[in-house]
Amino acid sequence: MFNRFLNHLEEWLISSFMAAATLVAFAAVVMRYTTGGGISWAQELTIYLFIWMAKFGAAYGVRTGIHIGVDFVVNAANPPIRRILIITAMSLGVTFTGVIAFFGARWVIFIYGTGQVSPDLEWPMWIIYLAIPLGSGLMCYRFIQAMILFLKTGLLHSHTQGMAGAAQEEKEALP
């Protein structure tokens, strides 16, 4: 139940951030060419929205198995070595994203204490930087999910249906 809610929230956030960034950029261009003026904060907001979208999109990529990877060595290895390489890679993913989430949270706390605000929007910067620990924490969680699934079933990702509606399933279970 929790994972299902989290999946939908993740997809909704990614879609919303992407749509909002597109609309803000479009409105800014229309304003610039029709009135000669622009929306002073549009570029800043668009950048922040794309940062948030990318952080949550990376977690979505881990969940659905669509991350780009160089798997030539893994595919060339015999099954026992392949299993070790996959577990090692996932463990490194968990470690890296966990460390980024931890230090990102420390950074957010530090920035909160400084009272910094963004230049154009004048939003508290700690809210903007919150994308780092939240996105990396979710990505760490997705790596843990993927590793548990692999250890139990040999599948690299479960049968999922993402935003594009394309169902993906690992065809060959690894030993």
Automatic annotation (TrEMBL):
UniProt-annotated location(s): Cell inner membrane
Alphabetical GO CC annotations of the entry are: plasma membrane
Q: What is its main location?
A: membrane
Record key words, sorted: Cell inner membrane, Cell membrane, Membrane, Transmembrane, Transmembrane helix, Transport
Domain of life of the organism in this record? Bacteria
Q: Which GO terms describe its molecular function?
A: transmembrane transporter activity
Q: Which Pfam families does UniProt cross-reference here?
A: DctQ (PF04290)
Tripartite ATP-independent periplasmic transporters DctQ component domain residues? 22-150
Q: Which GO terms describe its biological process?
A: C4-dicarboxylate transport
Positions of transmembrane segments: 12-33, 45-63, 84-111, 123-144
- Report whether Transmembrane shows up as a keyword of the record: yes
Is Secreted set as a keyword in this record?
no
Q: What's its membrane topology?
A: Multi-pass membrane protein
Known function: Part of the tripartite ATP-independent periplasmic (TRAP) transport system.
Give the record's subunit note: The complex comprises the extracytoplasmic solute receptor protein and the two transmembrane proteins.
The family annotation for this protein states: Belongs to the TRAP transporter small permease family.
What name has this protein been given in UniProt?
A: TRAP transporter small permease protein
Q: What species is this protein from?
A: Sulfurimicrobium lacus
